[in-house]
Write a structure and sequence with these properties.
Radius of gyration of chain A: 24 Å
Helix content of chain A: 25-40%
CATH topology of the largest domain in chain A: Dihydrodipicolinate Reductase, domain 2
Number of helices of chain A: 14
CATH architecture of the largest domain in chain A: 2-Layer Sandwich
Largest sheet of chain A: 11 strands, mixed
Oligomer: homodimer
């Protein structure tokens, strides 16, 4: 391609796209020095030319014809920050076919149909980078793909959704209920008017699928991820967690599970889930406050690592996009490609019922002789071992709080069903999984 | 190089080297899949063939002739984990000249003579990677070199020495003095019999030079780093920090300082220093306990990021070496190179006296009228503004605790000298810099 400047097309000029445009302009000299060639804007595709936006663009760079833009011969690099499945997928595929490398922040598309995109990139001999798709500015995909490529990652625990972390943190610090905390998040711009994608865990599930794919060199899609949101988390749950020295977080959990040959054997599986969970306050993730994100990684040799930072927002997400853009641009200049998809291990995804977890269970029971024995027996019948049990008497009833040892989710959920059917049980007041301890 | 296996030579088979050997063997299948070619051990250079070591090696792989090993035609990749300046430097240079790429964990050598190595790698068209040189297993160099390559890093604050963090954490939690905490660190294997390199900050200063070079695209060597260790930190300093809601950490601090044109101008400078400092307990670095490391990064677009994990130890350091090894091996297979040295910005290093910091100063004074005014006047004479001042009367003397606003280190140290010469000042009991707040 000679020594001409690299040309970048940007699809979308919203919160993230406008920051990418700004950084491309402000850092032009640094980018040229780091890439080895000037990097110039070829065009920005938008839905409406005259919409108000945060950045001033030279006349003639805006277009509503995204398809024509990605097909242009002089475009070397396409940044997709439209989001959603279509037209993003069609445009990315077209960009690759026309010989451009692609940087995207599109977690939903990657989690739904990543393999199609990766195959297209492979076929085109171009890069497809997507650091911004998970945890905003936090470098987590590159460390998983490259820094830990000589290690064996066994678990990833992520706080990857800022909206839900803000809400849960607010509930923890102020004692507010879910509805009240959500309203505050909406007032402050941390939650959208329709908060479903965030509070019901869809956003975190897409990110979990991407993290699990990279960590375990397998194909995991959003449909493989067991998902529960936080809308049922109550102030009582939060208080109960606090009494146990825990805090409630919405976690994206990706685990490598030993197969019949044990750890490292050929039939290891992958367990991927998103749900609220109690973690000990001493766990590094417990101190992740407000709308911040963090990803905690466990591996055989490195041990425990954590990556922390802003998980959303225009400028932070644009920082991750720009990092990818520099890498991809360097690869173009060098006539090479970065690491593509790595799915060689092809591990199966374990159904949620077979996934090992621990449960925290709060139960209101009659306060009379034999109750403890009957409750303990219910756990034993399902082969679930109890780690701790605490009883608070109050009049003629009592509140029991139990934490189980690790067992399959099916065993644990059957135990809770069993408890709910017992005469001496007035109510199962709280059920929540417990994570971040060694015994899983 | 056809499809033959890639051959790796390892220099040194101590704590780190033996773990690299183990991982190369245990993960052979995964490495082959990730690199695209089998990766095999060509040989291991040691000082004594019959020394006891943690790993069993096939006969014939051990050699005492490191120079012959790195010069072998069939060696594609050399891992240097001997440490120290010589013979490590000569061996790395010879390996590059003979066409091998190099992975090293040698912070001392990189901080002293990095440019010589980078130039040799550039000339040879080979990679020189060194993630393991800073903060052990924590991926921090790759994020700085690549993830943040499209952003503008303005500050790096690192807890990059596990020994000193263990000692300071012990002093904070138990009230122990420095000597007692050091002894415990030695008993537990966190400190060496001669702890000078750690407690006097030499190790951290080498890492600071490497971090500053990468963060600010300039050449910074260990000689450029202002260095103070922790051996003068007293139990009273720790208690004083606690009263202020702070904790004392040994920090590696790398800052981009605006030049005459302000931020982003052409004459920005770099300030690099290692010294004990007070940071607020609410700062993410404050919760880094025991021998863990963490690096806190501030940049224009990403905001605040933190990278946390084990900063030393055989297996964690080997994890970082292995990550580099996979990247370098992939590059060899693809016939390309990764990012080399980036020193285009060529920023000057600011002398410590001109570096802006804040001071915490504890003073015993006579408790009589006019004392406060006289002390405040001393600060004013040196153009240092006081942020907070607290006085505790006790009999006929009083304890004053002051925290300054940001000023140059020369102004602040002149202020302290001035205080020491005042009649009303009985003793300056504690002087420590304060970091991690916005006002610097």
């Amino acid at each position: 391609m000679g020594d001409r400047p690299l040309k970048v097309a940007i699809l979308g000029c919203g919160v993230v796209g406008s920051q990418v445009v700004r950084l491309l302009e402000e850092q032009a000299d640094d980018l040229a020095a780091r890439v080895g060639r000037p990097v110039e804007l070829a065009g920005v595709a938008v839905r409406r030319i005259d919409a108000p936006r945060d950045v001033e663009l030279p006349a003639g760079l805006l277009t509503t014809d995204a398809e024509a833009l990605v097909a242009r011969d002089d475009v070397d690099l396409v940044v997709e920050v439209i989001g959603g499945i279509e037209p993003a997928r069609t445009l990315i595929l077209s960009a690759l076919e026309h010989g451009a490398s692609v940087v995207t922040a599109n977690k939903a598309l990657l989690a739904e149909d990543g393999p199609t995109l990766f195959e297209a990139a492979e076929k085109a001999g171009r890069d497809l980078y997507y650091e911004a798709a998970v945890a905003g500015a936090i470098p987590i995909l590159r460390p998983l793909r490259e820094s830990l490529a000589g290690d064996r990652v066994t678990r990833v625990l992520g706080i990857v959704n800022g909206t839900t972390n803000f809400i849960l943190d607010k509930m923890d610090t102020s004692g507010a209920g879910f509805a009240e905390a959500l309203e505050e998040a909406q007032d402050l711009g941390y939650a959208e008017a329709d908060p479903t994608a965030d509070v019901e865990g869809f956003d975190a599930a897409a990110k979990a699928a991407i993290l699990a794919s990279l960590a375990f060199h397998s194909r995991v899609t959003a449909a493989d991820v067991h998902r529960e949101g936080i809308s049922d988390v109550t102030a009582a749950d939060i208080a109960s967690a606090r009494e146990m020295g825990c805090v409630v977080k919405l976690l994206a959990i990706c685990e490598l599970r030993p197969g019949t040959d044990g750890p490292g054997g050929g039939d290891e599986t992958v367990a991927v889930r998103v749900h609220p969970a109690m973690i000990p306050r001493s766990h590094p993730l417990a101190s992740v406050r407000e709308a911040y994100n963090a990803v905690f990684v466990e591996s055989d040799a490195a041990g425990q690592l954590m990556f922390y930072g802003p998980g959303a927002g225009g400028a932070p997400t644009a920082s991750a996009v720009m990092g990818d853009l520099v890498t991809v641009a360097r690869n173009l200049v060098a006539g090479t490609r970065g690491v593509g998809e790595s799915a060689y291990a092809d591990r199966a995804v374990l159904p949620m019922g077979e996934t090992r977890t621990r449960y925290h269970v709060g139960i209101d029971v009659d306060d009379r002789a034999g109750v403890l024995a009957a409750i303990a027996q219910a756990f034993a019948e399902h082969d679930v071992s109890i780690q701790t049990m605490r009883q608070d008497g109050r009049g003629d009833d009592a509140q029991l709080v139990l934490v189980s040892h690790g067992a399959t989710d099916a065993q644990l959920s059957a135990t809770v069903e069993h408890l709910r059917g017992m005469d001496i049980v007035r109510d199962v007041t709280s059920v929540m999984r417990v994570e971040g301890a060694d015994d899983q």
